Amino acid sequence: MYDPRVVRGNTYAAKNLPLHSEPDPLERHKQEEMKRRAKARKRAAEKRRIKTPEPVEGRRHVEVQTDLYLEELYDKVPEAIAATQTDLFLDRAPSPLYIPQKSGIDAATQIYDGELFDFNFEVEPILEVLVGKTLEQALIEVMEEEELEMLRKHQVEFEEKRNAELAEVQRLEDAERRRTDEKNRRIAEKLKLMEEKKEVAEKIAARSFTNAYLSNLIPSVFETLNDNGFFYDPRETEIENYFLPWLTHKSNNYVDKIRTSRLLLDHIILDSIRQLNSIGRPILRGLKERKIKKQKKYVSREDWMDPEMIFKCVESKPSNY
């Protein structure tokens, strides 16, 4: 791998590397200018190259073979049939047994009876060993059976002792449990008796306190209830709750009727006075003039507007007026 920062070979003509890794602006400008010129030359060469003119209307360009040797073209690929025949497969013969090649020299010898082994003589130690081992094994088995019998007897004795001890322990535990139950029962009875005594004492104290407290409470309660109206007379309550509201309602209706009739009467009287005033005004005017002529006396307008004066004028009206 080439790295310009690594100096290789002679260092006398080594290049001076810049302190910073950025390229020189002048070098970068030169490289860009060279790339721009190369692109311009390429575009000029493309423009100078003669291109095939466009086909006229109704025609189109077709690729034509321009090689030196013409090649006949077919729509269908040529085909050929080939065949071959092989010989029949024969079974391979079985492989012969492998017999290694002999090495060494054959030799032979002759042994007569009694030269190598005497059965009667050689069998005695073997029989002694077999009989001894058998007797030893038998003795070991007998000793094992005796030991097992002793172990069984010891186990039976141990179980009897253990059962007796367990029975004794159970008896002691039962006795201790009975004593504990009796103790707990007596403690519970004592506590219950003490609680009953305490409860009786509390009841007696509460009864005495209640009697002392209620001796003055009951009269005050009855007085308060009586003052608040909880003890009432049924007739008085019925009169207050039913009769008096009904009577008040009827009285109000009667008073309303009287007030309405009076208002109607006042309106009737006022209308009558207005009608009489409108009718008797000319009469009053004539009477006034007549009275002035007779008596030569001044009468105020308020006197003439008095209803009594109007009625008097009406009564004293001449028949030919």
In short:
The protein contains 5 helices and no strands.
What is the topology?
Elements: H1 25-48, H2 119-228, H3 234-295, H4 301-304, H5 307-315
Helix pairs in contact: 3-5
Q: What does this molecule look like?
A:
Among the domains are: 121-231; 235-315. The protein is 65% helix and 0% strand. It has five helices and no strands. The longest helix has 110 residues, at 119-228. The chain is flat. The model is unreliable at 313-321 (pLDDT under 50). Residues 155-204 form a coiled coil. Pfam families: Radial_spoke_3 (PF06098). Residues 1-49 are annotated as: Disordered. Belongs to the flagellar radial spoke RSP3 family.
Rg (CA only): 80 Å
What is the residue-averaged pLDDT? 79
N-to-C series of helices and strands: HHHHH
Residue share in helix: 55-70%
Q: Which features would summarize this protein structure in a list?
A:
cilium; 321 residues; flagellum; cell projection; flat; 65% helix; disordered C terminus; mainly alpha; single chain; cytoplasm; 5 helices
